[in-house]
Amino acid sequence: MSLDSISHRALSVIPGGVNSGQRRVPGLEQLVITATRGATFTDSRGDTYTDYHAAFGPPLLGHNDPDVDAAVAEAAAHIDLMGVGVTQAEVELAEDLAALIPSVEKVLLTSTGSEATFHALRVSRAATGRRLVVKFQGCYHGWHDSVSMNVISAPERVGRVDPISTGILPEVLDATLVLPFNDSGAVRRAFAEHGADIAAVIVEPVQHNVGCVLPVDGFLQVLRDETTRAGAVLIFDEVITGFRHALGGWQSICGVTPDLTTVGKAIANGYPIAAIGGRADLMDTFSSAPGRPVFFAGTYNGHPAMVAAARACLRKLRNEPVHEHVFALGEQIRSGLEEVFSEAGVPASVAGYGSVFVAYFMDGPAPQTYTDLLRNDAAMFLGYRRALMRHRIFELPLNLKRSHVSYAHTAAHVDELLMASRAALREAIESGGVADIANASTMGGAMR
Predict the structure, then answer these.
(1) 8-state DSSP, 312
(2) What is the torsion angle, in degrees rounded to the nearest 10, for the CA atoms of residue 328, residue 332, residue 338 and residue 341?
(3) Residues classed as catalytic
(4) Are 107 and 307 in contact (CB under 8 A)?
(5) Phi/psi zone of residue 81: left (φ > 0), alpha (ψ -120 to 50 degrees), beta?
(6) What CATH number labels 66-319?
(7) Average pLDDT, the chain
(8) How do residues 100-130 score in pLDDT, each as one tens digit?
(9) Where in the chain is the domain with CATH 3.40.640.10?
(10) What is the pLDDT of residues 311-321, one digit of tens each?
(11) Which of 53, 130, 192, 309 has the fewest C-beta atoms lying within 10 Å of its C-beta?
């Protein structure tokens, strides 16, 4: 049976044929991945692509990093999951995280970022005895009900409750306040009206689930000031920014220290492990400490192989010029893309930071709010990225999604990307982009 038939077989046993709602991409319904290596992946037709999607960002070192893989193999050869007690490697990883991330005094391991943010909100409500949480339009914090709303919303849903799933209780949705990112005035007004009932503010310090929207000067400090004044918990969701932008996360760059931090993705170069850490008094309320009231559990938490992957990844990030390399390539890509779009006379805003880049098809300055992103020409955005695939360059063809550089990418890859970008842009202009943009976003609203 041919490999191409796998996608058809998948439909009969897996809903939609994929194991995540963001993996069945229009135009890529037949995509079957057969191999990854360094900066590339290969599909079932034997085509190899330079990969800038990078699984939404985890493989900062590149696919199949030999040092991380060797650490996993070594751990698996002598220790397996026990589900009782603790291992030396878990302690050492927790010590690493506490040493690297400014806000972390104590830490607990989870398997996914969604679990980490779930626990962050739970412990915040328990510690404060309050009901409300604040999130921001365009931020994504995982699949759980309190934050499964207002990510990539249609224009008519901005400013309204916009759940990304059905099946969420209305009273849960009503307990989340959605504010515009980078709007300090809206934050102050929300605290003036609801401060005594706000348990937590959770924020991506850089909005990466809609590409790359950087915080304006002073915005994150306003969050710190208002939560401190009201006795609420400030949570930085650094599942994306942590380790990719700096070993200490974005908080080490901006100088604002939250009460709790969640990390994942680049922590282990693609192996499934995440963490929640922060103030000792908050972390000590979890039931991992005997008799404490906030339940915390997970069979796979601290799995020895995953811990080994994280420790090996962090060791490499500390000892090799990973950030210098990916930052330099990221800057070359962003400046190169600006030149490509300028030469073609196509309105575009090339955004990003460090190893992250995204080209929005819109004029004007870099976006500061989700509303700014509504100007992005989704048809051209998708048409351009689909055209890139014909040149064996892969940037995920979903609206507003960011792209990533890894340690395995080289200057030659950048030259190849910019050459392909010129050709893909011409092709997208000639075709007028993608005619049908239905399902172009996998984080749109589920109307109530």
Answers:
(1) H
(2) -140
(3) 140, 237, 265
(4) no
(5) beta
(6) 3.40.640.10
(7) 95
(8) 999 999 999 999 999 999 999 999 999 999 9
(9) 66-319
(10) 999 999 999 99
(11) 192
Query: Which residue spans of the chain are classified as CATH 3.90.1150.10?
Result: 3-64+321-431
**DSSP per residue, 38-52:** BTEEEETTS-EEEES
CATH of domain 3-64+321-431: 3.90.1150.10
The encoded tokens of residue 158 equal 């901005």
> Six-digit token pair at 260?
């709790």
Specify the residue for token string 């800038």.
Answer: 52
Which distant-in-sequence residues (6+ apart) come within 8 Å of 233 by Cβ? Answer: 120, 123, 124, 127, 128, 199, 200, 201, 227, 259, 260, 282
Look up residue 245 and give its two tokens: 């932008």
Residue 20 in tokens: 């995540």
CA nearest 440: which of 399, 388, 407?
399
The tokens of 400 are what?
């507003």
pLDDT digits (tens, 9 = 90+) for 378-427: 999 999 999 999 999 999 999 999 999 999 999 999 999 999 999 999 99
Residue 32 carries which side chain, given as an amino acid letter?
V
